[in-house]
Amino acid sequence: MTEATLADKTPATASGTGLAAWLAPALTLALFAVVFAKPAALLARDWWNDPEAGHGLLLFPAAVWLVWKRGLRPDRAGQPFLGLFLLAGAVLLRVASDLASELFTMRLALVGAAGALVVFYFGFRQLLAWWLPVILLVLAIPLPELLRSALALPLQFKASQLGAALLEARSIPVSLTGNVIIMPNGHRLFVTEACSGLRSLTALISLAVLMGGLWLRSPWVRVALVVLAVPIAVLINGVRVFLTGFLVFFVDPKLGEGFMHLTEGWLLFVVSLTLIGAVAWLLSFLDRRLGRAAA
């Protein structure tokens, strides 16, 4: 065979190899889109329409940005067998949850399948390197309705208790029955499920995870920030109930509902964000000090 003949065939071979290298990932992504189109569409719908799940509109872009920012490890190495095993489990979970009409596990299977593909092509170490965006994606999945209801009721009672205690501290005699605060003028404040603080609690925990992953180094300090987000959310929601009762009693009962009530909730949520940011800064300062002392 002449040199000219070899030269003519080499580019064609290289082109065929390059095409095959792109064809397999493209086919994998197409199959992934077909199998998980339903949970992805339902998840996007809830992010857009459900106020309890709206934080997903912020968490998903943040997770994508973190994946792009951190990039790929230089020592990445695909683990096809482990990836296929994890992918098979995610697909089985997807099918079983669809048969049971269970949205939470169906959406969890979506995140699990994406993680399995990362393991297949880049290895488990790469998935660990992306631990923060993975956690954000899991937090972006709305809680099951049963769990949401189970959490909302105790939060309603706690907010009612804190609000009533603060009103009594301002010399406003109130009577508390469950999640109903009875004012001296006979007006009743109902702390409904929407006012339980579960929405702000979910958002604060997600923000604490993001801040901890970006600003803090020690795992225990990150855990401390997430744990402290819970009492901050509960306390701020109790303050919201107190302010509502205060305005209803001293100003106008109409201030306990409508635009004013909604605006008050947003302002106090900004306060809670400021508090969690201050706690994160303080923990970051302590983290650096402890790191220098250990060194």
Walk me through this protein's architecture.
The protein has helices spanning 3-35, 37-49, 56-70, 80-99, 103-122, 124-129, 131-139, 145-169, 198-215, 219-250, 258-294; strands spanning 175-177, 180-182, 188-190. The protein has 295 residues and is mainly α. The protein has 2 domains: 36-142, no CATH class; 146-294, no CATH class. The protein has a 3-stranded antiparallel sheet, with helices on one face. Helix 3 runs antiparallel to helix 7 (131-139). The protein is globular, with a radius of gyration of 26 Å. It starts with a helix and ends with a helix.
Strand sequence of the main sheet, in spatial order?
Answer: 1-2-3
* End-to-end separation: 67 Å
Oligomer: single chain
- Domain count: 2
Main sheet overview: 3 strands, antiparallel
Molecular shape: globular
Show the helix and strand layout.
Elements: H1 3-35, H2 37-49, H3 56-70, H4 80-99, H5 103-122, H6 124-129, H7 131-139, H8 145-169, E1 175-177, E2 180-182, E3 188-190, H9 198-215, H10 219-250, H11 258-294
Antiparallel strand pairs: 1-2, 2-3
Helix pairs in contact: 2-5, 3-7, 4-5, 7-9, 8-10, 9-10, 9-11, 10-11
Brief digest:
This protein has 295 residues and is mainly alpha-helical. 77% of the residues lie in helices and 3% in strands.
Keywords:
mainly alpha, three-stranded antiparallel β-sheet, globular, disordered N terminus
